[in-house]
Amino acid sequence: MSNTEHSTIYRKDYRVPDFLITDLNLNFILGKKDCVVKAKSVFQRNQEAKSNSNELFLNGENLELLFVAVDGSELPASRYRLEGKGMVLIDMPDSFVLEVSTRIYPDKNTALEGLYRSSGNFCTQCEAEGFRKITYYLDRPDVMARFVTRIEGDIVDCPVLLSNGNLVEEGMLEGGRHFAVWEDPFPKPCYLFALVAGDLIFIQDEFTTCSGRRIDLRIYVEAKNREKCGHAMTSLKKSMAWDEEVFGLEYDLDTYMIVAVDDFNMGAMENKGLNVFNSKYVLASPETATDQDYLGVEGVIAHEYFHNWTGNRVTCRDWFQLSLKEGLTVFRDQEFSSDMNSRPVQRIEDVRVLRSFQFREDSGPMAHSVRPDSYLEINNFYTVTVYNKGAEVIRMMHTLLGAEDFRKGIDLYFKRHDGQAVTCDDFVSAMATASDVDLDQFKLWYSQAGTPELTVTEEWDVEGQRYKVTLSQRCPSTPSQSMEDKKAFHIPISFGLLDSNGNDMELKNALLELKSAEETFTFEGIHEKPVLSLLRGFSAPVKVEPWQSREQLAFLMANDSDPFNRWDASFRLSESVILELTSVLQQNRQAVLDPLFIDAVRRILTDRESDKSLLGMALSLPEENYLAQQMKVIDPDNLHLARRFVRRELANLLQAEFRAVWEGNTNRGEYELTSEAMGRRRLQNVALSYLLAGERPDQSDVDMAMEQYENGNNMTDVIAVLSAMSHCDIPERGELLQNFYEKWKDDVLVMDKWLILQASSSLPSTLASVKDLMHHPAFSISNPNKVRSLIGAFGGNHVAFHNSKGEGYCFLADQIIDLDSRNPQIASRLTTPFSTWKRYDTVRQKLMKAQLQRIAEKEGLSGDVFEMVRRSLDT
Ligand code: B3K
Ligand code: ZN
């Protein structure tokens, strides 16, 4: 495969920019069909740059150049040259003012990067490299300028005109037009620029900062969504207070604006003072949003707000340093959510994501380190590795340093680097200096890819009253990093030892630091053989080879004082049961459910003391996508049958217990968002899903579910019924889906749920219905949320996607090829299910490979998709 248009960029090639830009004046003239952008910027040669070349390359793509002038004189053709990806200015002085006018076409911008339109409203997305689709510029994060932005547009189409910073002027113009001028006093890289213009209303509130400044808070939405912004606003105020309290960070501008748009490539964007959000992470009401949606809004609002310091005030020197802001900000939003809700629940959710998606990425062709060494398309590196593993790396530093020294490190980081564009090394160096902890070996977490694998051996010496545990680590090879070349990681391991009553033995230190390939830790004065609770709170992003018996896991489930490890024991126990049954089915042997496991589940169902969320989570079996990764050769059909067998057996054997849990946790009261209420709903709805686990469940349970659907006063309870029923082949399924559609067809976010339900069904008819839904009015190929909900969810439906004839593969490849010309970022994301193709049987391998090759051969394939497909085929 060759595609010469796409070239790889290496971290080692980083050079400081030859020129810096101190100030930028932008003038946007929004028309009916196009937009003219006039940019005037002040350039100065960078004293730190080695080169003294008089040529200067400016990034610029898909731009119509109208005018270019230097220091007030229009440039003759001899002084500049247009190239595919930009413009070269020739014979430039050491400082100058550049004026460039370009024309762009927001209506035709289906990639949703740069300036585009969503439901008629103009909005921008510039990270990572979208600004170059607006004007010619030094589109790199280490060039930071003060922006003044003037916008003019039609007063009827665009009554609202917004940009970063403070509004300094506005007024009327001739012909029904008006303008606004915004000034952002903080120098920023252009990826943080934003413009929004359209017909929006806002809800308003205010926040008084710790130093007594009053901040005007506004959330802009379409008028029909006015009533759905309350939760987002509350979340914003909580985030502002939390960041002051926990990190000592105060907001810096006088206004903070959030705009919700329906067409957005990802979750949200932290543009300075003007966040643009996917409406999914702003709008919520009990009737339309689930508990998970509410938590999602709170988490993403916090995440973008926290970026104001970790990302905006201190930004990245180059895109290889992306985790500098993303890993740290994810850590911060996880901590915030833990403080607002339930810490153990939050930790379990975060670890589930990490294990299912990041571990999978780490073991496949896209494996890369938290700070990658090269990329072809930076948009492909907004990954679970950079974000979530990056957050784990920060969390490990927090564990090693302790909360107090961690905070000192953060303070030093801001003291040293406020207003700068810096590297991950700069961050670690501030942490090490402030705490006096040696983090040199620890930094390997930034450079070495792959998930370390630990093995555990225990030894109990009854005479010496001595307990020894030997831990060893290895990290498998990843693309361009072989196992032999990898050095041992510095791994913090929180742990405990349980006595036979299930109590914690007293220990001097509950943290082990594994720094070499193998190490033995000895504990004296241990009077009985302990049960080891390892990696409490999941203190490091590693895999541990199963070493404990099922009895020990059941014991930990019942007794561990660490709630995370109590849950983890249930997870590991279910995993071992399902994987064993998968191989039993593969050998055509009779499947029998381990009585020990049945007992463990019965204990959960009859537990009236513990936190209900945690009980609900302990009942939720590992997903097929996760379990598949644990198999040598993945067998989707038997894996699905084994998991389904476990659910059905449990439902049959423990029907009375499940019913009691369902009945004991119904609540007809008003919808409440407390952890307690969310826990109750979670437990109740997990019980319901078991009761409906059969293809043709008991009519009495179906009736009970129908009643919940009809009486539910919140989306969590309603969708739980549909979701459980979506796998049943019974007439009620169709009736409910139709009823739900009629009720909610005008609400795009609720319709996303309707699509996801159908695309995630394990019924054999799923692919056919997904294909039908592609033509349904509820679907639109140009809306990323719809694409994710239907096509993305189908790709994540393990058993349906891996249908042995390869029809799922063919369908997904068709969609990727189609979407690639329209929106490469979205197309690229859809390739993920193909990436693990080598893990399947030879027939499926062949089928998947053929589809990857078909995609690769597409004429004019985008760099985004090209990179994913090439990596998959090359390794
Ligand atoms: N920083 C943005 C992500 C931009 C993605 C560009 N492809 C959102 C966030 O992480 O907060
Ligand atoms: Zn972020």
TrEMBL record:
<dbReference type="InterPro" id="IPR001930">
    <property type="entry name" value="Peptidase_M1"/>
</dbReference>
<keyword id="KW-0482">Metalloprotease</keyword>
<keyword id="KW-0645">Protease</keyword>
<dbReference type="InterPro" id="IPR037144">
    <property type="entry name" value="Peptidase_M1_pepN_C_sf"/>
</dbReference>
<dbReference type="GO" id="GO:0008237">
    <property type="term" value="F:metallopeptidase activity"/>
</dbReference>
<dbReference type="InterPro" id="IPR024601">
    <property type="entry name" value="Peptidase_M1_pepN_C"/>
</dbReference>
<dbReference type="Pfam" id="PF11940">
    <property type="entry name" value="DUF3458"/>
</dbReference>
<dbReference type="InterPro" id="IPR042097">
    <property type="entry name" value="Aminopeptidase_N-like_N_sf"/>
</dbReference>
<comment type="function">
    <text>Aminopeptidase N is involved in the degradation of intracellular peptides generated by protein breakdown during normal growth as well as in response to nutrient starvation.</text>
</comment>
<dbReference type="InterPro" id="IPR038438">
    <property type="entry name" value="PepN_Ig-like_sf"/>
</dbReference>
<dbReference type="Pfam" id="PF01433">
    <property type="entry name" value="Peptidase_M1"/>
</dbReference>
<protein>
    <recommendedName>
        <fullName>Aminopeptidase N</fullName>
        <ecNumber>3.4.11.2</ecNumber>
    </recommendedName>
</protein>
<dbReference type="Pfam" id="PF17432">
    <property type="entry name" value="DUF3458_C"/>
</dbReference>
<dbReference type="InterPro" id="IPR012779">
    <property type="entry name" value="Peptidase_M1_pepN"/>
</dbReference>
<dbReference type="InterPro" id="IPR014782">
    <property type="entry name" value="Peptidase_M1_dom"/>
</dbReference>
<dbReference type="GO" id="GO:0006508">
    <property type="term" value="P:proteolysis"/>
</dbReference>
<feature type="domain" description="Peptidase M1 membrane alanine aminopeptidase">
    <location>
        <begin position="232"/>
        <end position="442"/>
    </location>
</feature>
<keyword id="KW-0479">Metal-binding</keyword>
<dbReference type="InterPro" id="IPR027268">
    <property type="entry name" value="Peptidase_M4/M1_CTD_sf"/>
</dbReference>
<feature type="domain" description="Peptidase M1 alanyl aminopeptidase Ig-like fold">
    <location>
        <begin position="450"/>
        <end position="545"/>
    </location>
</feature>
<keyword id="KW-0862">Zinc</keyword>
<keyword id="KW-0031">Aminopeptidase</keyword>
<dbReference type="GO" id="GO:0008270">
    <property type="term" value="F:zinc ion binding"/>
</dbReference>
<dbReference type="Pfam" id="PF17900">
    <property type="entry name" value="Peptidase_M1_N"/>
</dbReference>
<keyword id="KW-0378">Hydrolase</keyword>
<feature type="domain" description="Aminopeptidase N-like N-terminal">
    <location>
        <begin position="99"/>
        <end position="192"/>
    </location>
</feature>
<dbReference type="GO" id="GO:0016285">
    <property type="term" value="F:alanyl aminopeptidase activity"/>
</dbReference>
<dbReference type="InterPro" id="IPR045357">
    <property type="entry name" value="Aminopeptidase_N-like_N"/>
</dbReference>
<feature type="domain" description="Peptidase M1 alanyl aminopeptidase C-terminal">
    <location>
        <begin position="551"/>
        <end position="873"/>
    </location>
</feature>
<dbReference type="InterPro" id="IPR035414">
    <property type="entry name" value="Peptidase_M1_pepN_Ig-like"/>
</dbReference>
<comment type="similarity">
    <text>Belongs to the peptidase M1 family.</text>
</comment>
